[in-house]
What does this fold into?
Amino acid sequence: MSGIRVTVWNEGVHERVDAKVRELYPNGMGAQIAQYLEKQPGIASVRVCELHHDEQGLPEEVLNSTDVMTWWGHKAHKELTEENVERLHKRVLDGMGLIVLHSGHHSKIFKKLMGTSCDLKWREIGERERIWVVDPAHPIADGLPEYFELPHVEMYGEHFDIPQPDRQVFISWFQGGEVFRSGCCWHRGKGKVFYFRPGHETFPIYYDENVLRVIYNAVKWAAPTGVKEITRKNVKPIENVFIDP
Ligand code: ZN
It folds into this structure.
């Protein structure tokens, strides 16, 4: 089968305990993202996995048949087992793309991939966010206007404690005055990681066409490409080497 196999991993806790979130996302945030992705060209399959599923939605067969995973979590980061974090980490280094959304900045897997605290400033008063494209030639910016706005968001502000991104695609400005590196790319081993800021659970962020477009573009960007097999061990020389005794 050709095309990208996507797994939308969604914590799925807020939707069950908070009536406001359930009203916004009656089938869960994951389902809202998935229904958009599955209609897009080049996507072979999209499945939604949640924390309360078997093996926390991350069994070996799911990971091994995922080209790109999107990750939304917030309330229950601590519940993810170390075994699953290890498994995810190994799959990313082996080429699985990972798109970390919003409060996923504090997930165990993102912090492990970054090696920093990933802490930031935040405030939840429903202010406006203006998201500027700062790398217009980047594939994740494909088809977007030079900036777009979200009328009501939770603010995230600098300093965001991440390693310098390999590429930064977006920067956000907030009504209250802060700025934030809201779209950042890294390579880790054979895998690609993209962090995208929008997505607070009490605002209808995943109904916004530009936000969904960014997630789709990021899925295409993060899909595995390049060298399939890499050797990392003690090796014989490729050329004949004569060393003077
Ligand atoms: Zn939030």
